[in-house]
Amino acid sequence: MTEVEQQLIASLNRQEQLLQELIASINKPKLGLHSDAGMVFIYCNRSNGSLWYTLDSNRQPRAISQSALTGYLKVLRFEKVKRRGKQCHKLIAVVEADRLYQLESGHDSHFSKGLLSAVASLTPQHLRCPITIEPQPGSDDSVLFCRLWFGSHLVKAPYGEATSWRDVAVKAIANCKAANQ
Description:
Layout: H1 3-27, E1 40-43, E2 53-55, E3 61-63, E4 69-83, E5 86-96, E6 100-106, H2 110-121, E7 131-137, E8 144-150, E9 153-154, H3 165-179
Parallel strand pairs: 1-6
Antiparallel strand pairs: 2-3, 4-5, 4-7, 5-6, 7-8, 8-9
């Protein structure tokens, strides 16, 4: 083996070691005081003057200034919850990023329809990669749409009056489950 080849192998070994150290440091939990414990609950509707919001410790809405969330879609499900004293159905999407985020939207809202339609149009292999969820305001102050990005590509998944939402939801949920097995 020539000296150049030996230097190249040594450099590659050092690079691999540095990469392993970097990965190990990323996967370590934060030590000390911080505000990153637990799941962040995000409400996707425009009822509180922003596109999406969280609730503070006093259950007061706090606007989220960031315009998108990028991560791995881990869970997609419908859930019956009680809001403002009434039972209602919500679409729940759990995204794993720097921590877990749970997005909640009305089961038949434009946001939910856009998210379901886009996820149903992807494959489980696509969903093994990060996606970006971006709320988009409608022209009416009560309407919120969902744009989904795969890498730098907007996932176009149009829907209409004739769309079978049960079929779309079943396919989206199946894609999400298959991606996470």
